[in-house]
Write a structure and sequence with these properties.
Two copies of one chain form a homodimer. The first copy, chain A, is mainly alpha-helical. Chain A folds into two domains: about 45 residues, Homeodomain-like (Arc Repressor Mutant, subunit A), CATH 1.10.10.60; about 150 residues, Orthogonal Bundle (Tetracycline Repressor, domain 2). Chain A contains ten helices and no strands. In chain A, about 40% of the residues are buried. The C terminus of chain A is likely disordered. The interface between A and B is large, with 71 and 70 residues. Chain A binds a DNA duplex through helix 3.
Chain lengths: ~220, ~220
DNA sequence: AAGAGTTTCAAACAGTTGTTTTAAGTTTGC
DNA sequence: GCAAACTTAAAACAACTGTTTGAAACTCTT
């Protein structure tokens, strides 16, 4: 086996974490999968938590850099003008789904990421929040500029829904078995499908929401 | 404390499972929360797995019956004509989000369900597949009838994306903290938001997908 | 080739897991 | 009122968890 112990542990951990979840994956499963000694994890990473962080950091930092780079490119091209929603969606979700198509570890990782997003152990939640802070801020700004007619709160929800669709798109075959046999072998097709769905949802007519009684907030009368 | 031990265990388990996940929730946490003896779980349910199944079955069966009832009502009203996509979406996702708004346990459960869908232990996966089988079949048929212009494979993916958006809509505040402060206290607003997003995505223009090389399948030439 | 620095290894650590056991308590039917 | 059935309780079970230890094995630089 070529790569060093550290990398083998990261690879094995990534694969097992997406399969069994954060808690159910034991160090013994990981070190066995990596053909390493049990103590190797604590030697190289200090603890199980630090190992998990390392698994995420290894690819997540790069992913978010790619997202920002894609956004930078579009904004440079636009020279100050608002981007098209399609471009922003492409920069954020397109990059993600492309990484998910990379059989060389990226696919495994993206499934892990999508899974962890709804299954947040506390330490991982705060860790993700830090890693995402910059990219979220950039994309929020870009979207607000591109869609000034959409209220900010409404947009945040739509962004959230889009993240859900992305997560399921990536987790793919696993959960899809519920719906019946389906072909998820073509990443280009998946990309095209998700993009048109996301943009359809993003640009949908705004829902009519009647003012609510406002429980804990002070009630405001219509001006 | 009024209700009997069995119910108290189910309630405590539901609450703790969504909070810590299937594996990280221990029987001792559950029995402590239910103010019951540790052995009570194995006495009333046989095992931890069976308890988890009971937690799901208690509400999931009812949820899917509601979905089918809603669909039946629309179909009776339509008298053989295809339903509007909006009606089908309403029957499937509207019922779910309404249950998620029910503070009386429904909310907790729906979050648990959304979370488990991407975090599938094997035994829970097969269990969910059984529970969903009928409702999935009914809704697939209704959708195919309502949208004959949409290829079946394309639709299945969109259905899958919609499930993702629903899951995130329900998990709400937890994951949303990533995007910044947001108000998820108004279920009616959430319902309206999700519905217009879903229908926007469902009715989006079909993506152009070029025929792929087809790795393991036999290559097919364009006719 | 000697020796400092790094990495691996088997073994053991205390703590926690789900489950079982055995006995005591409670409710029910007659 | 008294068995029979059902429910609760405390204690112990073996198996497994993440982590630590101290010595062996390796890898370099000098």
């Amino acid at each position: 086996m070529e790569p060093d112990t550290r990398s083998r542990i990261l690879d094995a951990a990534e694969k097992l974490l997406v399969q069994h979840g954060l808690d159910a994956t034991t160090l013994r499963m990981i070190t066995t999968g990596a053909q390493a000694n049990l103590a190797a994890v604590n030697y190289h990473f200090g603890s199980k938590e630090s190992l998990i962080e390392a698994v995420f950091r290894r690819r997540l930092t790069w992913l978010n850099e790619q997202r920002i780079a894609a956004l930078d490119a579009f904004e440079a091209e636009a020279r100050g003008a608002p981007l098209k929603p399609r471009q922003i969606v492409e920069a954020f979700f397109g990059v993600a789904i492309r990484m998910a198509a990379d059989k060389n570890g990226g696919q495994t990782f993206m499934r892990l990421l999508g899974r962890t997003y709804t299954e947040p152990t506390d330490f991982v939640r705060t860790f993700l929040a830090e890693e995402y802070a910059e990219v979220i801020a950039r994309f929020k700004a870009a979207f607000f500029k591109a869609l000034p007619d959409v209220p900010q709160e409404e947009f945040l929800w739509r962004f959230h829904f889009m993240m859900g669709a992305l997560s399921y798109a990536i987790s793919g075959a696993d959960a899809l078995r519920l719906l019946g046999p389906i072909d998820d072998s073509d990443p280009d097709a998946l990309y095209a499908r998700l993009m048109s769905f996301l943009i359809g949802g993003l640009r949908a007519p705004l829902p009519e929401i009647q003012a609510k009684p406002a429980k804990k907030q002070r009630a405001r009368r219509a001006a």
